[in-house]
Amino acid sequence: MDSFEPAPEMGKVLRLTRGQTEAPTGRPRAVRSAGSAASPSEIAARLEVLERSALFFTEHPATLRILARRARAIAVPANTVVVNQGETGDSLFLVDRGRCLLRVETAPGHSIVVAALGPGDICGEDSFVSREGSRVSAVAGDDLSLLAIDRSSLYASLRPDSDLLPELARFAEQRRALFAEMSVQADWGRLTGAGTVLSIYSPKGGTGRTTIAVNLVARLARQRPREVVLVDLALPYPHAALMANLVPTACLARLGETPSEHFEEVLLSSILYHPSGLMVLPGAINLEEADLVTGELVGRAIEVLRRTFRYIVVDLPVAMGDVTLASIDQSQHVFMVITPEITAVKGAADAATILGVLGIPQDRLSLVLNHRTPAAGLSRNAVERGAKRPMTHEIPYDGTRPDEAAVHGGILAVANSKSLFARAIDALATSFESVHEVRGGQPAIEAAGRPSQLEPVR
Questions:
Q1: Which of 61, 154, 245, 397 sits at a 20 to 30 Å CA gap from 172?
Q2: What are the residue ranges spanned by the domains of the chain?
Q3: How far apart are CA 129 and CA 132, in angstroms?
Q4: Domain 13-173 sits in which CATH superfamily?
Q5: In 186-225, which positions are buried (b, 16+ CB within 10 angstroms) versus exposed (e)?
């Protein structure tokens, strides 16, 4: 059996072996023969795989136990095809151990790696949902352990109130859009030599930081499609994907043990794509994964993303811990979002002092005053006196529009560009872009936050 070449860099076009136009035809091997009953320990292991999956872990425990009994454990040798592009299938495959590469053949003899899946990820959903030929091939990058669930077993196990099938359909559509974009792009590495990192921080929860981050990235992506990514590190409850109506199945937290030679392709394949052009890298999916995101892991991720994207926007947690400091340390600019409240202003003043002690230049820090209520508790002058800094930008109160858009999975800056909130986001993005122009593939870091270019908005 012919084998693929070693896994290429994410999105790079590769040539197959001379004369080879199809993937290897090896077959996965069932761990147990058909009809043999699984042991209690095997069922427990399968249950653990299901609970690790973002699509399945919210299902009723009884449903998961039934699926664990009905599922098939499959051992797949490296370089063996699990799903062939163009073929129909009726099974979902959950990755237990190993690495699975998703490839799209763009022309005879040429294919593109569009995703590298790891434990907890799913493949086979495209054909399962559409009942048509798969748009991708799934090939074992390493020796794989999979859990296979066929359509009849899944349908027979689900409770009437289950949301899994609609979520699965949404996830399949989301992946199709992402893979189509990546096939067009074909070469992620050409975008930029060193992207600009913008960290968005708030010393207090409830300031609208994530809403601003999501809308700002969507606005930047409208001008620069496929060149902007949002890294959602608002731990322990990152909600950027939820606000954009995206279904995460992979995240940064799960990449800590990924070998360095595979880190880039696995990281890039964890990114979610929104039809507006917004791209999101979830920091964590489950609450318990938040502790797996370390400053060292964040640093590795940003280093990779800077080689791939022009702008990397990081939504930071409130805590001034290793994760926050690792991102700020690599940032060319920091937006601090505050609301006109005494606690928020006091927190902003303290945080600005800490960042100054840590060596963050004052011209790299801009304050954004966000009005979330119709009546401000403090005037702008009072906020500036308390924060001991001028406000660089001000976002007016726009009723419930930003929150309503988030509830419905929409992005206000895209859906209603004439709203007060959207116009303020546009002004924020325009100012940021004017400062961080990219010349010769390098960001103009030396110009970051220059007062003559980012004048306070009155």
A1: 61
A2: 13-173, 188-447
A3: 8
A4: Jelly Rolls (2.60.120.10)
A5: eebeebbeebbbbbbbbbbeebbbbbbbbbbbbbbbbebe
CATH number of 188-447: 3.40.50.300
Beta carbons within 8 Å of 155's beta carbon, 6+ residues apart: none
**How does strand 393-395 pair with strand 228-232?**
unpaired
Q: Stretch 335-363: mean pLDDT, rounded?
A: 89
Tokens 């100012």 — which residue? 431
Q: Is 54 helix (H, G, I), strand (E, B) or coil?
A: coil
Which tens digit of pLDDT belongs to each residue from 241-275?
888 888 888 899 989 888 888 888 889 888 988 88
- Per-residue pLDDT at 358 exceeds 80: no
Instruction: List 223's β-bridge partners, or say none.
Output: none
Distance CA 393, CA 431 (A): 10
Cα separations in angstroms, 302 against 194, 229, 422, 423:
10, 11, 27, 29
Query: Considering only CA atoms, which of 209, 197, 277, 196 is closest in space to residue 239?
Result: 209
**Could you report the per-residue pLDDT of 266-320, keeping only the tens digit for each?**
898 889 888 888 899 999 988 889 999 999 999 999 999 998 899 999 999 999 8
Token pair in block for residue 340: 């006109």
Q: Which amino acid is at 31?
A: V
43 CB burial (10 A radius; 0-12, 13-18, 19+): middle
Name residue 39's amino acid. S
Residue type, 428: L
**Which amino acid is it at 107?**
A
The larger pLDDT score, comparing residue 406 to residue 293, is at 293
User: CA dihedral defined by 257, 261, 266, 271, rounded to 10 degrees?
Assistant: 110
Integer Cα distance of 88 and 98 in angstroms: 24
Q: Report pTM.
A: 0.68
Q: CA-to-CA distance for 98 and 383, rounded, in angstroms?
A: 53
CA distances from 385 to 348, 360, 411, 449 (A): 11, 21, 33, 20
Copy the structure tokens of residue 229.
Answer: 């990514």
